[in-house]
Amino acid sequence: MMQVLLHTIGVGLRELQDCLSSMSVLEVEVRDYFQGVIRLTDFKVEGADAKNIFYLRELDDADKLIESIKTKKNGKAVIIGGGYIGLEVGTAMRINNFDVTMVYPEPWCMPRLFTPSLAAFYEGEVKLNDGRVIEADIVVVGVGARPMTALFKGQVEEENGGIKTDGFFKTSMPGVYAVGDVATFPMKLCNEMRRVEHVDHARKSAEQAVKAIKASETGKEIEEYDYLPYFYSRSFDLSWKFYGDNVGDSVYFGDKNPLSPKPKFGSFWIKDRKVVGAFLEGGTPEENKAIAKVSRLQPPVENLDQLKKEGLSFATMI
Q1: What's the average model confidence in pLDDT over 276-302?
Q2: 313 — phi, psi (to 5°)?
Q3: Would you call 147 exposed, middle or buried from its count of C-beta atoms within 10 A (0-12, 13-18, 19+)?
Q4: What are the distances in angstroms from CA 205 to CA 166, 181, 197, 232, 246?
Q5: How far apart are the C-alpha atoms of 72 and 116, rounded to whole Å?
Q6: CA angle centred on 125, ends 122 and 128, rounded to 5°
Q7: What is the Cα–Cα distance from 141 to 170, expressed in whole angstroms?
Q8: Closest C-alpha among 210, 204, 285, 189 to residue 241
């Protein structure tokens, strides 16, 4: 038997275990405990409580933003943050004929993934550090979220800002599992403990935990989680995918001219003379499968200049 407990707060894990006759998947006030949106009020920003400032965490947040877009047609929007939320909301606002200004403190957009060369293709004038005031009908804040583990403090082991798990997403407390953004797990491909913030991992880690729970009930064995990091985004006619790890030397290839009708370019990341990650803009399904395969297999690379010359064909021939 499996039970799901919703909106359960203020009790310890051991107390919950005592109430259950079998292992359970526990969802504890997700909005407040598992992922907390970083808000302007956290920085004590003047005017942080003004109207028409939006954050995107719940479906209700998106509904409110859509209603505001409808009432502020052809208006001005300021997007605070240059990550996933910032870039994709900025695209949506432009599609709805808003004049969009993006503001973020980092030197380029998507700094946890993009190199300066990759970012230069996607961004325009977005820096603001001289105290100017920008008029806006709508402000959307997408400056990140943090895993909220306070409810479990002292009850389960933590590591790297999350709840430590094994390759089956078991925590240090028997019968308790953690999945998604909040879980720090052994990334076999990189041979280290990692925490991943992305919907693809959230879905796959939950699937792995359910398989592990069912296997423990039936006495069967399953393979440990072997995740290939995967990120993607779509903006206007652009669409990119990334697989693997973005560490080591980066090697660029392809056509990054923004005036090209269909730009296709990418990057490989090389560490210890092996390909450990790959990025591709404008790839076909077959080409995207090829960069996923090359990131999984991590083939050796002898000459970076030759790799740059071969470009995407290096991956498609693996």
Answers
A1: 96
A2: -60, -25
A3: buried
A4: 11, 9, 11, 18, 21
A5: 34
A6: 125
A7: 34
A8: 285
